[in-house]
Amino acid sequence: MNHAFPCGTLPxxxxxxxxxxxxxxxxxxxxxxxxxDDWFIESGMLDLAPGASEVDLALxxxxxxxxxxxxxxxxxxxPLPADAVAEVNLQASGLPxxxxxxxxGATRTGSVSQGLAALARETVEILGGDDGVLLRECARPxxxxxxxxxxxGHRREWCAMKTCGNRVxxxxxxxxxxxxxxx
Length: 183
What we know:
Elements: H1 10-15, E1 18-19, E2 27-28, H2 33-42, H3 54-76, H4 82-92, E3 98-102, E4 105-109, H5 112-128, E5 135-137, E6 146-148, H6 161-182
Antiparallel strand pairs: 1-2, 3-4, 5-6
């Protein structure tokens, strides 16, 4: 697999395809049209690669950054940026992913624009609905993944316990051990 899906929410996992946003050189996980195709398949959104082009990739990155801008504004308590709202609304107006029933069960197919439309529509539902207040950013300083905190008490700190949570806890443990040895 080329991509990770720690959030369980596809638009927020899509935002995470630009890793370590605050670093001088963030890691781009959508560097090629083929990686975009892989994301759609690995996410389970599509069963067949949509055959992304460079133009599709540019549209996908524009949508990703618009989603991030909207989420960041919500997290900071700022008004939603009009250009990002316009981009998400434009993409949300596209055709849905095609779902067909066949002998092997359900099959999801579509173009990149259909996949982006699905991501944009879910973004509208998150930001325009009750889930917007559940948005959080991972507390691990090197991580910029955003997620919906559906934990009881809404005290979740990390995008995923098995990655960021474990790293933070292991680093704290090592620091305590080092402090004990230094005493």
